[in-house]
C-alpha cells in the first residue's frame, strides 16, 4: 500500500498527518488543545485565549464569528452618529457602573469619565424637553387650524433638534467607550459533544 502511495505522489510532497495550531504554527500534540464548536478548528488553549483577549472574536482560520454573534449584517455599516450597537450600549453601562463605584472617587480618569456621563445626562434632559415641545406642538395643531407650510416647518425644526441631540448623545457614548480600555476575560471551557 505504501508503494502505491509513493507511486501516486508525483511531486514528492511529504504528507504530514500531524495537525498544527494555525495561530502559533506548532504541532497540536505538544500542548492542551481546544476545538471551536462552531467550525471544529483546533488550537492550543493558550493561543486561543491570547487571540480572543486581543479583541478578535472570530475563528483565526475561517473567520467564523460563532454562535454568540448578534450583529445584523444589514445594520453593520449603520453606526456611529445615529446608532449604537448592543456591544457599545453594554460597554457604556459597564463603564458607568465601574466609574460610579465608591472606591473610584479619587481616581482622576474616573472623575473625567463621570463628567462625560454628566454631559450625556444633560443632553438626555434636553432631548426630553424637545420631545415634549414637539408633542405639545402636534397637540396644538390638532386643536387649532394652522397654515400647513408653517406647521410642517415647525415640526421639522423640532425633529431636527431631537436628531441633533440624539447624535450628540451617541457621539459622547462612543467617546467614552473608545477611550475606556476594558479587555474582557474570556475563559474557554472544553465542551464534550
TrEMBL record:
Signal peptide range in chain numbering: none
Entry's transmembrane regions: none
All copies of domain RING-type, residue ranges: 21-62
Pfam families cross-referenced by the UniProt entry: zf-RING_2
Protein name: RING-type domain-containing protein
Organism whose genome encodes this protein: viral metagenome
Amino acid at each position: 500500500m505504501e508503494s502505491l502511495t509513493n507511486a501516486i505522489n508525483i511531486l514528492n510532497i511529504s504528507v504530514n498527518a500531524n495537525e498544527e495550531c494555525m495561530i502559533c504554527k506548532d504541532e497540536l500534540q505538544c500542548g492542551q488543545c481546544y476545538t471551536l464548536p462552531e467550525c471544529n478548528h483546533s488550537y492550543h488553549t493558550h493561543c486561543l485565549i491570547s487571540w480572543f483577549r486581543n479583541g478578535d472574536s472570530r475563528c483565526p482560520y475561517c473567520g467564523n464569528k460563532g454562535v454568540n454573534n448578534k450583529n445584523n449584517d444589514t445594520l453593520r455599516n449603520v453606526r456611529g452618529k445615529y446608532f449604537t450597537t448592543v456591544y457599545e450600549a453594554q460597554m457604556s453601562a459597564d463603564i458607568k457602573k465601574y466609574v460610579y463605584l465608591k472606591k473610584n472617587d479619587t481616581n482622576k480618569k474616573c472623575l473625567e469619565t463621570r463628567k462625560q456621563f454628566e454631559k450625556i445626562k444633560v443632553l438626555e434632559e434636553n432631548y426630553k424637553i424637545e420631545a415634549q415641545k414637539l408633542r405639545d406642538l402636534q397637540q396644538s395643531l390638532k386643536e387649532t387650524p394652522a397654515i400647513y407650510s408653517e406647521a410642517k416647518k415647525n415640526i421639522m425644526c423640532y425633529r431636527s433638534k431631537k436628531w441633533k441631540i440624539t447624535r450628540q448623545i451617541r457621539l459622547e457614548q462612543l467617546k467614552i467607550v473608545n477611550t475606556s480600555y476594558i479587555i474582557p476575560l474570556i475563559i474557554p471551557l472544553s465542551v464534550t459533544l
